[in-house]
Automatic annotation (TrEMBL):
Its main location: membrane. Keywords: Membrane, Transmembrane, Transmembrane helix. The lineage of its organism: Archaea, Methanobacteriati, Methanobacteriota, Stenosarchaea group, Halobacteria. It comes from Haloplanus aerogenes. It is a multi-pass membrane protein. GO terms for cellular component: membrane. The keyword Nucleotide-binding does not apply. The chain crosses the membrane at residues 38-56, 68-87, 93-116, 123-142, 154-174, 186-206, 218-237, 249-268, 274-290. InterPro entries: AA-Vitamin_Transporters (IPR050638), EamA_dom (IPR000620), EmrE-like (IPR037185). It is found in: Membrane. Residues 8-141, 158-290 form the EamA domain. Pfam families: EamA (PF00892). This is Drug/metabolite transporter (DMT)-like permease.
Protein backbone atom coordinates (compact mmCIF):
# COMPACT_ATOMS: atom_id res chain seq x y z
CA UNK A 1 0.00 0.00 0.00
CA UNK A 2 2.97 2.34 0.53
CA UNK A 3 3.72 2.12 -3.22
CA UNK A 4 1.21 4.89 -3.99
CA UNK A 5 1.54 6.83 -0.73
CA UNK A 6 2.92 10.01 -2.32
CA UNK A 7 0.27 10.03 -5.04
CA UNK A 8 -2.49 9.56 -2.45
CA UNK A 9 -1.12 12.39 -0.30
CA UNK A 10 -0.76 14.66 -3.34
CA UNK A 11 -4.38 14.13 -4.36
CA UNK A 12 -5.52 14.51 -0.75
CA UNK A 13 -3.75 17.85 -0.47
CA UNK A 14 -5.23 19.04 -3.78
CA UNK A 15 -8.69 17.98 -2.59
CA UNK A 16 -8.31 19.71 0.79
CA UNK A 17 -6.95 22.95 -0.62
CA UNK A 18 -9.30 22.92 -3.60
CA UNK A 19 -12.42 22.41 -1.50
CA UNK A 20 -11.21 25.16 0.85
CA UNK A 21 -12.39 27.69 -1.75
CA UNK A 22 -15.87 26.21 -1.41
CA UNK A 23 -15.63 26.37 2.41
CA UNK A 24 -14.63 30.04 2.21
CA UNK A 25 -17.59 30.77 -0.06
CA UNK A 26 -19.96 28.91 2.26
CA UNK A 27 -18.67 30.54 5.44
CA UNK A 28 -18.90 34.06 4.03
CA UNK A 29 -22.68 33.81 4.37
CA UNK A 30 -22.20 33.90 8.16
CA UNK A 31 -19.00 35.90 8.76
CA UNK A 32 -17.67 39.30 7.70
CA UNK A 33 -14.90 38.40 5.21
CA UNK A 34 -11.73 39.71 6.89
CA UNK A 35 -12.87 38.72 10.37
CA UNK A 36 -13.57 35.23 9.01
CA UNK A 37 -10.00 34.97 7.70
CA UNK A 38 -8.58 36.32 10.97
CA UNK A 39 -10.44 33.82 13.16
CA UNK A 40 -9.38 31.01 10.84
CA UNK A 41 -5.72 31.83 11.48
CA UNK A 42 -6.22 32.43 15.19
CA UNK A 43 -7.06 28.74 15.40
CA UNK A 44 -4.60 27.50 12.76
CA UNK A 45 -1.74 29.60 14.14
CA UNK A 46 -2.08 28.18 17.65
CA UNK A 47 -2.19 24.63 16.26
CA UNK A 48 0.83 25.21 14.01
CA UNK A 49 2.81 26.78 16.86
CA UNK A 50 2.10 23.71 18.99
CA UNK A 51 3.30 21.52 16.12
CA UNK A 52 6.45 23.63 15.68
CA UNK A 53 7.19 23.35 19.41
CA UNK A 54 6.93 19.57 19.04
CA UNK A 55 9.16 19.08 15.98
CA UNK A 56 11.60 22.03 16.16
CA UNK A 57 14.30 22.33 18.79
CA UNK A 58 13.83 26.11 19.13
CA UNK A 59 10.43 27.24 17.79
CA UNK A 60 11.01 30.96 18.50
CA UNK A 61 12.61 33.16 15.79
CA UNK A 62 15.91 34.75 16.78
CA UNK A 63 17.57 37.82 15.35
CA UNK A 64 16.58 40.48 12.84
CA UNK A 65 16.76 38.19 9.80
CA UNK A 66 14.45 35.52 11.16
CA UNK A 67 11.91 38.08 12.34
CA UNK A 68 12.12 39.74 8.90
CA UNK A 69 11.06 36.41 7.40
CA UNK A 70 8.12 36.27 9.80
CA UNK A 71 7.19 39.87 8.92
CA UNK A 72 7.05 39.06 5.21
CA UNK A 73 5.10 35.88 5.88
CA UNK A 74 2.63 37.69 8.13
CA UNK A 75 1.99 40.66 5.83
CA UNK A 76 2.06 39.07 2.35
CA UNK A 77 1.67 35.29 2.61
CA UNK A 78 -1.06 35.33 5.26
CA UNK A 79 -2.69 38.76 5.74
CA UNK A 80 -2.35 40.18 2.23
CA UNK A 81 -3.30 36.96 0.50
CA UNK A 82 -6.33 36.19 2.65
CA UNK A 83 -7.72 39.73 2.90
CA UNK A 84 -7.85 39.99 -0.89
CA UNK A 85 -9.08 36.40 -1.33
CA UNK A 86 -11.88 36.49 1.25
CA UNK A 87 -13.17 39.90 0.13
CA UNK A 88 -13.00 38.78 -3.51
CA UNK A 89 -14.88 35.55 -2.83
CA UNK A 90 -17.60 37.47 -0.97
CA UNK A 91 -18.86 38.65 -4.37
CA UNK A 92 -21.51 36.28 -5.82
CA UNK A 93 -19.86 36.60 -9.24
CA UNK A 94 -16.73 34.78 -8.05
CA UNK A 95 -17.33 31.03 -7.86
CA UNK A 96 -15.11 28.64 -5.93
CA UNK A 97 -13.64 27.33 -9.19
CA UNK A 98 -12.94 30.81 -10.57
CA UNK A 99 -11.13 31.83 -7.37
CA UNK A 100 -9.05 28.65 -7.41
CA UNK A 101 -8.11 29.15 -11.06
CA UNK A 102 -6.98 32.74 -10.49
CA UNK A 103 -4.94 31.70 -7.44
CA UNK A 104 -3.31 28.97 -9.55
CA UNK A 105 -1.50 31.81 -11.33
CA UNK A 106 0.63 32.28 -8.19
CA UNK A 107 3.48 29.91 -9.24
CA UNK A 108 3.78 31.75 -12.57
CA UNK A 109 3.86 35.14 -10.81
CA UNK A 110 6.38 33.77 -8.32
CA UNK A 111 8.76 32.99 -11.17
CA UNK A 112 8.28 36.48 -12.60
CA UNK A 113 8.97 38.17 -9.26
CA UNK A 114 12.00 35.93 -8.74
CA UNK A 115 13.50 37.17 -11.99
CA UNK A 116 12.90 40.77 -10.88
CA UNK A 117 14.15 40.57 -7.29
CA UNK A 118 16.74 37.79 -7.36
CA UNK A 119 19.73 38.96 -9.44
CA UNK A 120 20.92 35.47 -10.37
CA UNK A 121 17.65 34.64 -12.13
CA UNK A 122 16.39 35.98 -15.45
CA UNK A 123 13.35 35.21 -17.58
CA UNK A 124 13.98 33.91 -21.07
CA UNK A 125 11.87 35.06 -24.00
CA UNK A 126 9.79 31.88 -23.68
CA UNK A 127 9.34 32.55 -19.96
CA UNK A 128 8.04 36.05 -20.69
CA UNK A 129 5.55 34.54 -23.14
CA UNK A 130 4.50 32.12 -20.37
CA UNK A 131 3.82 35.02 -18.00
CA UNK A 132 1.78 36.65 -20.75
CA UNK A 133 -0.39 33.55 -21.13
CA UNK A 134 -0.97 33.46 -17.38
CA UNK A 135 -2.09 37.09 -17.29
CA UNK A 136 -4.27 36.49 -20.35
CA UNK A 137 -5.97 33.69 -18.41
CA UNK A 138 -6.91 36.15 -15.66
CA UNK A 139 -8.29 38.60 -18.25
CA UNK A 140 -10.42 35.82 -19.77
CA UNK A 141 -11.76 34.99 -16.31
CA UNK A 142 -12.51 38.59 -15.41
CA UNK A 143 -14.10 39.31 -18.82
CA UNK A 144 -14.07 43.10 -18.44
CA UNK A 145 -16.49 44.84 -20.78
CA UNK A 146 -16.07 48.42 -22.01
CA UNK A 147 -18.03 50.74 -19.75
CA UNK A 148 -18.32 48.11 -17.01
CA UNK A 149 -14.77 47.86 -15.68
CA UNK A 150 -15.84 48.71 -12.13
CA UNK A 151 -18.67 46.22 -11.86
CA UNK A 152 -18.56 43.87 -8.89
CA UNK A 153 -17.55 40.73 -10.72
CA UNK A 154 -14.52 42.29 -12.40
CA UNK A 155 -13.32 44.08 -9.25
CA UNK A 156 -13.78 40.95 -7.14
CA UNK A 157 -11.78 38.79 -9.55
CA UNK A 158 -9.03 41.41 -9.63
CA UNK A 159 -8.97 41.26 -5.82
CA UNK A 160 -8.41 37.51 -6.04
CA UNK A 161 -5.65 38.23 -8.54
CA UNK A 162 -4.23 40.60 -5.92
CA UNK A 163 -4.25 37.68 -3.48
CA UNK A 164 -2.20 35.55 -5.88
CA UNK A 165 0.18 38.47 -6.46
CA UNK A 166 0.64 39.03 -2.72
CA UNK A 167 1.44 35.36 -2.14
CA UNK A 168 3.87 35.24 -5.06
CA UNK A 169 5.72 38.38 -3.95
CA UNK A 170 5.92 37.11 -0.38
CA UNK A 171 7.34 33.79 -1.55
CA UNK A 172 10.13 35.56 -3.43
CA UNK A 173 10.97 38.04 -0.67
CA UNK A 174 11.37 35.22 1.86
CA UNK A 175 14.02 33.80 -0.47
CA UNK A 176 15.74 37.18 -0.81
CA UNK A 177 16.19 37.59 2.95
CA UNK A 178 19.48 36.02 4.03
CA UNK A 179 18.23 34.11 7.05
CA UNK A 180 17.24 30.52 7.76
CA UNK A 181 14.18 29.47 9.74
CA UNK A 182 12.48 26.05 9.95
CA UNK A 183 9.39 26.10 7.74
CA UNK A 184 7.16 24.98 10.63
CA UNK A 185 8.33 27.92 12.75
CA UNK A 186 7.92 30.35 9.86
CA UNK A 187 4.39 29.15 9.14
CA UNK A 188 3.33 29.23 12.80
CA UNK A 189 4.52 32.76 13.54
CA UNK A 190 3.39 34.04 10.14
CA UNK A 191 -0.10 32.68 10.79
CA UNK A 192 -0.29 34.33 14.20
CA UNK A 193 1.14 37.63 12.94
CA UNK A 194 -1.12 37.56 9.91
CA UNK A 195 -4.16 36.89 12.09
CA UNK A 196 -3.28 39.93 14.23
CA UNK A 197 -2.94 42.12 11.12
CA UNK A 198 -6.24 40.86 9.74
CA UNK A 199 -8.00 41.67 13.01
CA UNK A 200 -6.66 45.23 12.66
CA UNK A 201 -7.89 45.46 9.06
CA UNK A 202 -11.23 43.99 10.10
CA UNK A 203 -11.66 46.66 12.76
CA UNK A 204 -10.69 49.34 10.24
CA UNK A 205 -13.40 48.10 7.89
CA UNK A 206 -15.98 48.29 10.68
CA UNK A 207 -16.41 44.53 11.02
CA UNK A 208 -17.28 43.08 14.40
CA UNK A 209 -18.50 39.90 16.07
CA UNK A 210 -22.00 41.40 15.86
CA UNK A 211 -21.86 40.61 12.14
CA UNK A 212 -21.30 36.90 12.80
CA UNK A 213 -24.29 34.58 12.48
CA UNK A 214 -23.70 31.44 14.53
CA UNK A 215 -24.93 28.44 12.55
CA UNK A 216 -23.87 24.84 12.13
CA UNK A 217 -22.88 25.53 8.52
CA UNK A 218 -20.73 28.50 9.46
CA UNK A 219 -18.95 26.65 12.25
CA UNK A 220 -18.31 23.68 9.98
CA UNK A 221 -16.79 25.97 7.35
CA UNK A 222 -14.55 27.60 9.98
CA UNK A 223 -13.50 24.23 11.41
CA UNK A 224 -12.73 22.84 7.96
CA UNK A 225 -10.58 25.82 7.02
CA UNK A 226 -8.73 25.92 10.35
CA UNK A 227 -8.23 22.21 10.98
CA UNK A 228 -8.24 20.58 7.56
CA UNK A 229 -7.10 23.22 5.05
CA UNK A 230 -4.56 24.91 7.35
CA UNK A 231 -3.31 22.51 10.04
CA UNK A 232 -3.64 19.15 8.23
CA UNK A 233 -3.01 20.64 4.80
CA UNK A 234 0.31 22.15 5.78
CA UNK A 235 1.43 18.96 7.51
CA UNK A 236 0.86 17.07 4.25
CA UNK A 237 2.52 19.91 2.33
CA UNK A 238 5.69 19.74 4.47
CA UNK A 239 5.90 15.98 4.01
CA UNK A 240 5.50 16.17 0.22
CA UNK A 241 7.89 19.13 -0.04
CA UNK A 242 10.64 16.92 1.37
CA UNK A 243 9.73 13.97 -0.85
CA UNK A 244 8.88 15.66 -4.15
CA UNK A 245 10.55 19.09 -4.10
CA UNK A 246 9.27 22.59 -4.79
CA UNK A 247 8.65 22.24 -8.54
CA UNK A 248 6.42 19.21 -8.21
CA UNK A 249 4.48 20.48 -5.21
CA UNK A 250 3.58 23.60 -7.25
CA UNK A 251 1.45 21.30 -9.39
CA UNK A 252 -1.04 21.11 -6.51
CA UNK A 253 -2.17 24.59 -7.60
CA UNK A 254 -3.26 23.11 -10.94
CA UNK A 255 -5.15 20.13 -9.54
CA UNK A 256 -6.90 22.10 -6.78
CA UNK A 257 -9.30 23.96 -9.16
CA UNK A 258 -10.78 20.60 -10.20
CA UNK A 259 -11.75 19.89 -6.59
CA UNK A 260 -12.87 23.49 -6.11
CA UNK A 261 -15.24 23.13 -9.06
CA UNK A 262 -16.54 19.74 -7.89
CA UNK A 263 -17.11 20.83 -4.29
CA UNK A 264 -18.70 24.10 -5.40
CA UNK A 265 -21.07 22.16 -7.65
CA UNK A 266 -21.92 19.56 -4.99
CA UNK A 267 -22.42 21.87 -2.00
CA UNK A 268 -23.17 25.32 -3.44
CA UNK A 269 -24.81 24.45 -6.78
CA UNK A 270 -22.14 26.39 -8.68
CA UNK A 271 -21.67 25.80 -12.38
CA UNK A 272 -18.40 25.73 -14.34
CA UNK A 273 -18.33 28.37 -17.07
CA UNK A 274 -16.47 28.20 -20.37
CA UNK A 275 -14.46 31.27 -19.30
CA UNK A 276 -13.30 29.49 -16.15
CA UNK A 277 -12.10 26.46 -18.12
CA UNK A 278 -10.42 28.66 -20.75
CA UNK A 279 -8.72 30.78 -18.08
CA UNK A 280 -7.40 27.66 -16.38
CA UNK A 281 -6.03 26.29 -19.66
CA UNK A 282 -4.19 29.56 -20.40
CA UNK A 283 -2.72 29.81 -16.89
CA UNK A 284 -1.60 26.18 -16.91
CA UNK A 285 -0.02 26.58 -20.35
CA UNK A 286 1.81 29.66 -19.07
CA UNK A 287 3.09 27.63 -16.11
CA UNK A 288 4.39 24.90 -18.43
CA UNK A 289 6.29 27.49 -20.47
CA UNK A 290 7.80 29.22 -17.45
CA UNK A 291 8.79 25.98 -15.70
CA UNK A 292 9.49 23.87 -18.79
CA UNK A 293 13.14 23.11 -17.98
CA UNK A 294 12.56 22.29 -14.32
CA UNK A 295 9.57 20.09 -15.17
CA UNK A 296 11.47 18.28 -17.90
CA UNK A 297 14.33 17.56 -15.51
CA UNK A 298 12.11 16.51 -12.62
CA UNK A 299 9.57 14.32 -14.42
CA UNK A 300 11.57 11.07 -14.07
CA UNK A 301 12.17 11.72 -10.37
CA UNK A 302 8.52 12.64 -9.83
CA UNK A 303 7.38 9.45 -11.57
CA UNK A 304 9.63 7.33 -9.33
CA UNK A 305 8.56 9.18 -6.19
CA UNK A 306 4.83 8.88 -6.85
CA UNK A 307 5.00 5.14 -7.38
CA UNK A 308 7.38 4.57 -4.47
CA UNK A 309 10.47 3.52 -6.44
CA UNK A 310 12.89 5.89 -4.63
Amino acid sequence: MSRYRNLALFLTLAAIWGSAFMAIKAGLDYFPPVLFAAIRYDVAGVLMLAYAAWVVEDPIPRGRGQWALVAVGSTLLIAGYHVFLFIGESDPAVTSAAAAVIVSLSPVLTTGFARAFLPDERLTAVGIVGLGFGLLGVIVLARPEPGALLTGGVVAKLLVFGAATSFALGSVLTRRIEAQLPIETLEAWSMLGGALLMHAVSLGLGESLAGVTVTVEGMLALAYLSLAASALGFLIYFDLLDRLGAVEINLVSYVAPIFAALSGWLFLDEGLSVATAAGFALIFFGFLLVKRRAIRGELPRLRRALVGED
